[in-house]
Specification:
single chain, two-stranded antiparallel ribbon, 9 strands, 49% helix, D-Maltodextrin-Binding Protein, domain 2, alpha+beta, 10% strand, 11 helices, seven-stranded mixed sheet, 2 domains
Length: 371
């Protein structure tokens, strides 16, 4: 008998027998926890992508509609942007009723849009925003480059490849065997891959060696299960002690000892992880290095990191303002230079064939006196 819990697979039945199933191992996958979104995305996150797209199309089309309603309108773009940003209107509004109705509708939309954006902006700045996690098997197969599993994963891979399920066959094609669980979890943390194993064992391994300084898990477990299967101890075929072992196993299961042992093991792993971090902090303190303390729970205060999107937008506006100012100076200089230059000489006038300039002037003789 081997004191190790084995998943009961069809490929293992010809090799050895099993005791009575006393546990249900859920084969799950583990991926790296997504990192926080960049701070400059705080300008975009308060509203969805569809709302931003429709608003951008409306801003592009509204000046065209203003121009169609009033041909002599020369401030359509200026009025549209000023109303959206909550500023004053340039000049007096035209008296056309249709034009004023459209302006009133755009002002109401700008009020609702600005209120919703400002209301969600504070939450987007202070609350952490994580990218979407991979939780289903279909997303897992489409995302990862490979799946890793310890050496006993060779039996799982062969079983998945022989399965009638297309999803299990796809998982079996991506699966590769690694030497240890730590090697697989480290690869999942650094590369675009996932590690596959029993859910309880993965929880213990992550808690023991893959927690951040603040106690957060750097790896997470997907919600969908790859292959739930009963588990038992392997024994030789026709072993005479199998019945006695089954009796003892059922006594432990009915007493709840399995769950108790699992919870105790998980608690000890958490304590060990905290102890390692405390020792590391003492070493940093003794060496005089900067101590990265744990982050407090609750809303985080606004810092320059949260507001970097606003600074980037402000810098972009300053650059555009400087470029516009230089273009205006260049246009004014060219216009003044053109106005001060002397006018070109007029082109020579074409002569008419019967113009008097074509004939020499001959004075007429004085009239003769009559005798």
């Amino acid at each position: 008998m081997i004191p190790m819990v084995y998943v009961i697979l069809e490929s293992r039945l010809p090799l050895y027998d099993f005791t009575c199933p006393f546990d249900r191992i859920r084969i799950s996958f583990s991926l790296a926890t997504p990192s926080l979104a960049p701070g400059w995305l705080s300008l975009y996150l308060p509203l969805s992508g569809t709302v931003w797209l429709l608003t951008f199309l409306t801003i592009c089309l509204l000046p065209v509609v203003f121009k169609m309603l009033l041909q002599e309108e020369g401030r359509a773009v200026d009025r549209t942007l000023r109303m959206l940003l909550g500023q004053d209107l340039p000049g007096r509004l035209p008296a056309a009723p249709s034009y004023r109705i459209l302006v009133a509708a755009w002002m109401v939309f700008s009020l609702v849009f600005g209120t919703a954006y400002r209301g969600n902006l504070t939450a987007a700045l202070t609350l952490p925003t994580y990218p979407r996690r991979i939780e289903t098997l279909s997303d897992l197969v489409a995302y990862v480059d490979r799946l890793t599993m310890p050496p006993y994963g060779a039996d799982h891979r062969a079983s998945y490849l022989a399965s009638d399920s297309p999803m299990l066959r796809a998982i079996g094609q991506l699966m590769q065997v690694v030497h240890t669980t730590d090697e697989g979890l480290t690869g999942a943390l650094r590369n675009r891959e996932a590690h596959v194993d029993g859910r309880r064992y993965l929880e213990q391994a992550i808690t023991h060696g893959f927690l951040s300084e603040g106690g957060k898990e750097r790896l997470y477990l997907g919600k969908e299960i790859i292959f739930p299967s009963p588990a038992a101890f392997p024994v030789p075929h026709d072993a005479p002690y199998k019945t006695h072992f089954n009796h003892v196993i059922w006594m432990c299961v009915e007493a709840g000892l399995l769950d108790k042992w699992y919870q105790d093991t998980l608690t000890e792993a958490k304590k060990e992880s905290r102890r390692k971090w405390r020792e590391k902090r003492r070493e940093e303190e003794a060496e005089g290095r900067e101590i990265k303390g744990e982050k407090e729970s609750g809303p985080a205060p606004l810092t320059h990191t949260h507001l970097q999107g606003f600074f980037l937008l402000f810098s972009l506006g300053l650059v555009l303002a400087v470029v516009s100012f230089l273009l205006e100076i260049l246009h004014s200089y060219l216009h003044k230079r053109t106005s001060l230059s002397p006018p070109p000489p007029p082109p020579p006038a074409s002569l008419h064939p019967f113009s008097p300039l074509h004939f020499p002037f001959v004075p007429c003789p004085p009239p003769s006196k009559s005798i």
